[in-house]
Design brief:
Blueprint (H helix, E strand, L loop, with lengths): L2 H12 L9 H20 L3 H17 L3 H17 L3 H14 L6 H17 L3 H17 L3 H17 L3 H19 L4 H16 L3 H23 L19 E8 L8 E7 L8 E5 L6 E6 L6
Helix pairs in contact: 1-2, 1-3, 2-3, 2-4, 3-4, 4-5, 4-6, 5-6, 6-7, 6-8, 7-8, 8-9, 9-10, 10-11
C-alpha cells in the first residue's frame, strides 16, 4: 500500500460526507477508521503501509486538535518504526508522547511509550536501559489497570535477560507475565499458551529438559483445544465441490497469532487453500475462543 493508495483510502472514507457534515466529529470518525485499518495492516506485518496510514491519520488528528487521539497515533508510529528496524525514529515518537502526555489522563499511552523506548534500546543493544524502560512501563500499566500490557512488558524484560544469558531473571519475568495472563484471561487463552512456551524455552536453554517439556506440552494443549473449537466450525473454511469429487478438496492451517482488533488478545491467522475446487483461497483471522471469522483476504480471484 503506497502513498497513493493511502490517499485513495482516506478519500473513500471522507467522500460520503456532505459539505455540511465535514466537521470535527466527522473528521475524528475518519481518523478512527484510519487507525483501525492501520492497526490491521500493522498486525499483518505490512509495516511500511501501516506507517503511511498512521502518518495521514496524525495529520487529521492535529487538524482537529484531537490531543488524545494524537498521542495514540504517535505511539503507533513509534511501534511501527521499531518494527521497521528504525529504533532512533521510534525513540523520537515515544519521546513526543512522553512530552505531551498528561500523567493523570493518558497513563495507557505513557505506558506504551515507555514500552516502545524499551524495545528501541533493546534493538540497539543498550540492554540495561531497555530493562529500565520496560520496568517503568510495567509500573505505569499496572497502575492504570492495563494488566495485559504489563504482562507484555514483563515478557520483553524476560527476552532481554535471555539475551544477556541471565536465565534465572528471564524465567522470573516470564513467570510473572504468566501469572498475570492466567488471572486476566483464563487458563485456555492463547496468551497463556505463549507464556508456557516462553517458560519452556528458558528451561530448555538452562538444560532442564523435563521442565521444558512440561511447559511445551501445556502450551500445545491450549492450542490444540483452540484448534478443536475451529474444527467444530469447519464450515467456515468450506467451499463448493466444483470438480464433482464428492467433497471440497481444500484445507486450512494455522500460521500464527496476531492482535487484529487491537484489544490485547491474539487471534489465529489461518491460511486456506484448495486444489481442483479452486476456492476459497486466502488468509483468515479467527477468534480461537469462539471460532468466529473476523477477517478474510481472498487470493487467487473471486469465488462464484
Amino acid at each position: 500500500m503506497n502513498k497513493t493508495l493511502v490517499c485513495i483510502l482516506a478519500v473513500s472514507l471522507i467522500t460520503p460526507l456532505t459539505a455540511q457534515e465535514i466537521n470535527t466529529d466527522s473528521l475524528r470518525a475518519v481518523a478512527d477508521s484510519l487507525h483501525a485499518v492501520g492497526d490491521s495492516v500493522f498486525e499483518l506485518n505490512q509495516d511500511s503501509s501501516a506507517l503511511g496510514i498512521f502518518r495521514f491519520e496524525l495529520t487529521l488528528r492535529r487538524e482537529i486538535l484531537d490531543s488524545s487521539g494524537e498521542l495514540k497515533t504517535m505511539n503507533m508510529i513509534g511501534r511501527t518504526f521499531n518494527a521497521l528496524g528504525e529504533p532512533d525514529s521510534a525513540l523520537v515518537y515515544a519521546d513526543m508522547v512522553l512530552g505531551f502526555a498528561d500523567v493523570t489522563s493518558d497513563s495507557a499511552e505513557i505506558g506504551q511509550a515507555y514500552h516502545t523506548r524499551g524495545y528501541a534500546f533493546f534493538q540497539i543493544r543498550r540492554y540495561e536501559e531497555a530493562i529500565g524502560e520496560y520496568n517503568t512501563a510495567v509500573d505505569v500499566r499496572l497502575a492504570c489497570g492495563d494488566s495485559i500490557g504489563a504482562a507484555n512488558s514483563l515478557y520483553n524484560i524476560g527476552l532481554v535477560y535471555r539475551e544477556l544469558g541471565e536465565y534465572g531473571k528471564a524465567l522470573e519475568n516470564h513467570e510473572k507475565a504468566m501469572v498475570i495472563n492466567l488471572k486476566a484471561l483464563g487458563a485456555e487463552n492463547p496468551h497463556v499458551a505463549e507464556s508456557y512456551y516462553n517458560i519452556g524455552k528458558v528451561n530448555h536453554e538452562q538444560e532442564n529438559p523435563d521442565s521444558a517439556l512440561a511447559y511445551y506440552t501445556k502450551s500445545i494443549d491450549i492450542f490444540e483445544k483452540s484448534r478443536g473449537k475451529l474444527e467444530n466450525r469447519y464450515k467456515v473454511f468450506s467451499g463448493k465441490d466444483l470438480d464433482s469429487s464428492g467433497q471440497w478438496d481444500g484445507d486450512w492451517n494455522p500460521r500464527g497469532l496476531i492482535d487484529v482488533e487491537g484489544d490485547g488478545f491474539n487471534e489465529l491467522l489461518i491460511s486456506i487453500g484448495a486444489s481442483m475446487d479452486l476456492y476459497p483461497r486466502g488468509l483468515a483471522v479467527i477468534d480461537p475462543q469462539t471460532g468466529k471469522q473476523l477477517w478474510f483476504y481472498e487470493m487467487g480471484g473471486k469465488s462464484e
